[in-house]
Amino acid sequence: MRWYLRHLGAALTAVVALPVMAQQQQVQRDPRIGYVLPAGGQRGTTFTVTVGGQYLDGTTGAFFTGKGIKAKVVDSFIPTNPGQAALLRNRMDELRTKRQAANGVPTRGATTEPSTRPVFTAEDEKEFNEIVKRLANFVRKPSSPAISESVTLSVEIEADAEPGEREIRLVTPRRDTNPMVFFVGQLPEVCEKPSRLRDEPTKSVPPDDANVTLPTVVNGQIMPGGVDRYHFTARKGQNLVVIAKARALVPYIADAVPGWFQATIRLLDKEGKELAYDDDYRFDPDPVLHYVIPADGQYLIEIHDSIYRGREDFVYRIAMGELPFVTSIFPLGGKAGAKTDVVLTGWNLPDSHFAVDGQPAGIAHVALPDRGLYRDSAVFAADALPEVMEQVAHDSPQTAQGIAMPVIINGRITKSDEVDVYSFRGRAGEEIVAEVRARRLDSPLDSVLILTDAAGKQIAMNDDQEDKGAGLETHHADSYILTKLPADGVYYLTLRDTQGKGGPEYAYRLRISQPRPSFELRVTPSSASLRGWNNTPLSAQVIRRDGFTGEVAVSLDGSPGFDMPDVRIPADKTEAKLNIAPRRSQADGIYPVRIVGRATIAGKQVVHPAVPAEDMMQAFAYRHLVPADELLVTVARFVAPPTRPALGLAAARKGATTKPSKRGE
Amino acid sequence: MHYMNQNDVSRRDVLRGALVGMAGLMVANRLSFGAAAGPATRPVAAAGKAKSVIQIWMWGGPAHLDTFDPKPEAGGDYCGQFTKPIETNVSGMRICELLPQLAKHADKYSIIRSMTHGNNAHETASYMVQTGRNAGERLVYPCAGAVVSLFRGSDAGYRGLIPPYVVLTEPQGRFSESGFMSNKYRPFATGGDPKQMPFAVEGVVAPGISDSRQLARRDLRNSLDTLGHAAAIDPQIQAFTATGDQAYDLITGDAGKVFDVSQEKDAVRDRYGKNTFGQSCLVARRLVERGVPYITINYKGWDTHKQNFQTMRRQLPEMDAGMSSLLQDLADRGLLDSTIIWWGGEFGRTPKVQWEAPWNGGRGHHGKVFSAVVAGGGFKGGHVVGASDAKGEEVKDRPVYPCDLIGSMYALLGIDGSAKLPNPQGIDTRVLPTATDGVKTAGILKEIM
Q1: Which of A513, A536, A565 is the last residue of a domain?
Q2: How many CB atoms lie within 10 A of CB B343?
Q3: Does residue A467 contact residue A435 with C-beta atoms inside 8 Å?
Q4: Of all helices (H) and strands (E), which one includes residue A345?
Q5: Which of A257, A376, B162, B225 has the fewest CB neighbours in a 10 Å radius?
Q6: Which residues of chain A have a CB within 8 Å of the CB of B365?
Q7: Are B357 and A621 a contacting pair at CB < 8 A?
Q8: Residue B370: beta bridge partners?
């Protein structure tokens, strides 16, 4: 067929389909993934990965950020719903009748003359077997439809792939999905079979037991009532570290409370005596255990939800062994561009000092020494402002540490109820900002800041301040004050832990400066499907800092092949819709797209790249912007809407009285 | 019949002596007689137009856009599948297209489209709507049913055997109970299911047990009740026994037959709908005919986070049949003027449909603005009070707070809003909140009274 005729047919279909689409557009059939099992693997190996979600039919492959990983689709599981099941049964009856007639079995109203018998072909046989298989997939009411489908991948990670955190997305002809985390590890891994493929029923499952050799990473999935156990041999004196990732894999679940898999882990000896237990590691819901093995022998690690819940998306990864684990670093950052010597505290560390290369201003994730075993990263804040270290014993106005603005102070609340006091000179009418960065840098400190004048009168106070840019925080513990000073004079800034706690790990960075108006930009979602104009699939959100009230202009950056009219987010607004479309010359495919925001601040033009993000709901109520590595856009002009394999559905519809289901047509 | 011997005599003396002090402890929790603190003021059954209340509690929070406040003009992302609301028999008043029966009775009820309290948590919002008070404060207030039970129940001369506050069929628990008031004002939850035959009302109707067998059981129990006989002169025990007798009269006498829906013609049962809600409406009507002051029908299944439209399609016709039959029957029997019907839940649901995963076409909680419906008992029908904005997201006109709606009901029932509620700690607690209580109010529903 001439190429234009082929496309014409599709184009006409598209045109005709548009008005219908506009109405049916309401029921979004965007493919979306909800869990990955295992959420990672050892480099240099090939292994099976199950990705669960919805509307995954037609998945052609998977995307990974970074280098060295590829995948191919091996299988898929789409549960058959009641409407489809009814149609399939009808069709199956038809085929069965046909087969009987073809074999000469007398049936009501059918003649048995050989010449008039129908022929039961090989295709009929194939269709019949497919229907049997699809009826076996019949699930009357999946417990959570949004994660009831799955795709099985075969994933290969090259031996020299960089260890650490990546993102995985599934790719369908119409669009790519949202991303989820995927780890490249260095240790041998095991993974339990997904629950659907296990023999036991999903209610009150007995503990799953496996034997493993340390060091290793184990992957699994907890269903309701589920308990998984891993038995291993250990030697006396081994510094065992067990690091579980559960919330890290699926940070927010919209239709569950608290909104993630609240894992707990226990270490037991071979008599079943509990040696250690952890629910949360400080403020992090994912548990971490450290235990010095008392004697040679068998031990086990057990994982389950804190109240024995379970679901398909309660997946976990547990790294076990004498693994390096950094419990805190100090300082939490340094001057932009300058090398910083950081003191590491933790377990099984090769060294207690670590040199961080000069970083650009902002937040960096710095890879920590991994001893070839387990790669972790630390959050490191770099800033252009002058930096000072906290001096000792400054816990009252009399002994306050004097500072000159602007400055960033690296300090610690070293023991319970400790108070750190800083003093500075200010002028009447001067605006100042005091900002704590601690929790956002993984410090357990729950700061509270109080600004007082020389007479001790409180000018401003703050405990918690929400930062929409910190999408993974659920307790916005870092304090922030933006205030105007009433008079010339000396001012005191007191910082302490709201809960009265303290210790060497209770570190902070305290910025005291004039306001630095600025902005950050987020674009949601991080995947989009484009057929042409007339869709506004993306939304830009501005996070204003230090009282910035200016207008932000949002535009494409690079990304030839796409057009996007500039959008301005005015001073009184925080979001706007983005209308992006492919140029006619842009072929169908998946493309990374970059967007930037521009604003004029203090006479200078400031440009910040937009961070792609997913707008995720937690526990029916809260919303968070969770950053993703890239914004991937699928151009899919000539791709038909998703269809189920025909499987006689067309034939069934002719005779069926049941209304065909909307999906798959 | 009891057994006398030497030991019993001395035990009896001891018991008699100890009982006076113990009786309060032993009996008070199980059955209160208001002995601890009777109501400080007990208003004489004031002449109020309304004598009974039927509360249809839409448990879970019904979508206001999909029931009584349709917004087709806001577009498919708001109205979803329900794009063609229907006119009712009151011009200008329209409701969801899945309520055609109720559309014929709009002259009997009024819709409040501007209910608001701003809370989106099931438990907190339920408490606020049912008590008219703010949640999380020092005291736990009684819900409207318990207040009506106080002022229209046995303390006010109600002598019916059926408890004055009945719940069909599952109690909601602590959000619709007597709060700091005594257990006497708690609801009597029937349990069972009125669509089953027989309707097994907890403690009253036990399937397979005949009346004579019930009475034989009572006799056996009495014969074993040595304490009851030993302390027969104690006033607490006497009251306990009297209540027990009353309970048996309810079980074995005519009063308990109110729960027997098989007494109604099949055609009537079909009109209400042979489902739990429909038959509950029928039982509620029968209870009102017997003069029961407060009946709550706990209608579950409205928390439509997922499958909102499928659930509405399944449940709204059921609600339509039951509620319209109830309105019709009460009107036909001349009972509508003396019976308040209150339809509503703890909140409404998000006007913007949640198409995205994992909801795939659901609605979340929405306490900023939602709808309620009132009928009968002195409320005018055929009116709309208040309005929500074009998308149904905020109050546009005339907010109505929970205490405004409850206060209106009390006024129609002739319950004095400033009357005291009996408080065991002696704290001054009143029927309705005042300005100093920090509870928002925009005034009772004078527009429809």
Answers
A1: A513
A2: 25
A3: no
A4: strand A340-347
A5: A257
A6: 620
A7: no
A8: B115
Span A615-649, pLDDT tens digits: 999 999 999 999 999 999 988 877 665 544 434 33
Quick: pLDDT tens for A75-87: 998 888 777 888 8
Considering only alpha carbons, which residue of chain B is nearest residue A146?
A: B358
| Domain boundaries, position A25 | 1-30
Across all residues in chain B, what is the average pLDDT?
87
CB contacts, 8 Å: A30 with chain B:
356-357
Share of chain A above pLDDT 90, in %: 70
Judge: A54–B360 Cβ closer than 8 Å, yes or no: yes
Test the B interface: residue of A21, A25, A27 with most B CBs within 10 Å: A27
> By the 8 A CB rule, do B352 and B78 touch?
yes
Q: Would the CB atoms of B305 and A620 count as touching at under 8 Å?
A: yes
* Number of domains chain A contains: 6
Residues of B in Cβ contact (< 8 Å) with A27: 355, 360-361
Domain membership flag for residue A36: no
User: How confident is residue A1, by pLDDT bands cut at 50, 70 and 90?
Assistant: very low
Could you report the predicted ipTM of this complex, rounded to two decimals? 0.78
Across the range A286-295, mean pLDDT stands at 98
The Cα of A527 is separated from the nearest Cα of chain B by a number of Å equal to: 14
Mean per-residue pLDDT, A259-270: 97
Q: Report yes or no: B305 and B363 within 8 Å, Cβ to Cβ.
A: yes
Pairing of strands A362-367, A377-383: antiparallel
Look up residue B334 and give its two tokens.
């001349």
Residue of A nearest to B83 (CA): A23
A490 and A533 inside one domain = no
Q: Are residues A434 and A541 in the same domain?
A: no
Query: What is the model's pTM?
Result: 0.83
A211 occurs within a structural domain:
yes
Overall average pLDDT of the B254-261 stretch: 84
CA separation for the pair A112, A105 (Å, rounded):
7
The answer to the question of residue A331 being in a domain is no
Q: Check CB contact under 8 Å for A147 and B358.
A: yes
